[in-house]
What we know:
A hairpin with a 6-residue loop joins strand 4 and strand 5 (148-153). The strands form 3 sheets. This protein has a 5-stranded parallel sheet with strand order 2-3-6-1-7, covered by helices on one side. It has a two-stranded antiparallel ribbon with strand order 4-5. The chain has helices at residues 6-9, 19-25, 37-53, 70-81, 96-104, 122-134, 171-175, 188-202, 208-216, 222-239, 246-255, 265-276, 285-292, 296-309, 324-329; strands spanning 60-63, 85-89, 111-115, 136-141, 148-153, 158-163, 179-182, 313-316, 319-322. The longest helix is centred in the middle third of the chain and has 18 residues, at 222-239. The model is unreliable at 1-6 (pLDDT under 50). It is globular, with a radius of gyration of 23 Å. By secondary structure, the chain is of the alpha/beta class. The protein has 3 domains: 36-182, P-loop containing nucleotide triphosphate hydrolases (Rossmann fold); 188-255, Helicase, Ruva Protein, domain 3, CATH 1.10.8; 265-329, Orthogonal Bundle (Arc Repressor Mutant, subunit A), CATH 1.10.10. It has 15 helices and 9 strands. Residues 22, 25-27, 33-35, 66-72, 194, 222-223, 226 line the site of adenosine-5'-diphosphate.
Amino acid sequence: MTGQPADETLSALPQLGEREMETTLRPSRLSEFIGQPRVREQLELVLESARRRGVPPDHVLLSGPPGLGKTSLAMIVAAELDASIRITSGPALERAGDLAAMLSNLAEGDVLFIDEIHRIARPAEEMLYLAMEDFRVDVVVGKGPGATSIPLEIAPFTLVGATTRSGALTGPLRDRFGFTGQMEFYADHELDQVVRRSAKILDIEIDAEGSAEIARRSRGTPRIANRLLRRVRDYAEVRVDGRVTLEVARAALAVYDVDELGLDRLDRAVLSALVHSFGGGPVGVATLAVAVGEEPTTVEEVCEPYLVRAGMLARTPRGRVATASAWEHLGLRPPSRPDQAGPTLFD
Ligand SMILES: Nc1ncnc2c1ncn2[C@@H]1O[C@H](COP(=O)(O)OP(=O)(O)O)[C@@H](O)[C@H]1O
Ligand SMILES: [Mg+2]
């Protein structure tokens, strides 16, 4: 889709019509999964030990910003276990009955993947506790004083939960996961590998500098790296001979309005509001979200993690603060802050 607006080119969230492409590019085994060495090694141990003991592994929680590979890893868990995977999401489990139906259809050793698990409704969550712990659900029949609960056995399974917001999970739910993988933003050299792997699969000719440039501007996020690669490929095919070099990558990324650091529209809006409307902060996240016309949770879960890691934004007890690099990135001179300056003659 060449005509995609620049706004969406950088979003870490999957765009319309992109799912099919994501399936093509998704690594299917742990050995193909690039980066995240810590999570990968830990998960390898969890899976291998379960395999040796011949039991389903502990429930797995994957947490981290969008586009870092949580869904891919969930599918890999099932593939490595030679198990089938059932996929649902927190928002889809509105009533406990929805979850009960899902659980009672599981076969022994199946993987149940619940995406956005922090958005699960309370009654379903409570049902999940018992299911995770005892492989049992209590189905309530009837209403009021005459209601009875019928215990129902379910096959031993492994739950894989994904969340962009592990802090929003209740304690009891979090405690029932035997393993939590905290996904981190990718280093440039890891994204470079992602770009080269995808280029190979999509049959795109790209040189080392071209892929490094795309990697560098991908906001630490494989989903964005793959998207930028496709946009650069479009440009290379239409404007030049199809080969992606450094010059081609730069020219293409300029057309799509991708900045030097790969910040997206929302990132830039947040920084700009922080600097222009609030003098650099501190300002509360809710106020900041209103200023950019977004939900506070989106600003908090999608946008801030990368700005913090890029050293542009600091979360302080008094609110969000723009760092000197943020001012500089916007082409402004950082103010000398009296509250941050060293001791003066009058102290
Ligand atoms: N470690 C990785 N190695 C290679 N490709 C990856 C990796 N992580 C993610 N991707 C790519 O990024 C896309 C988005 O990943 P996904 O698992 O859907 O992220 P999330 O569920 O965390 O939002 C996938 O389709 C895949 O092509
Ligand atoms: Mg996902």
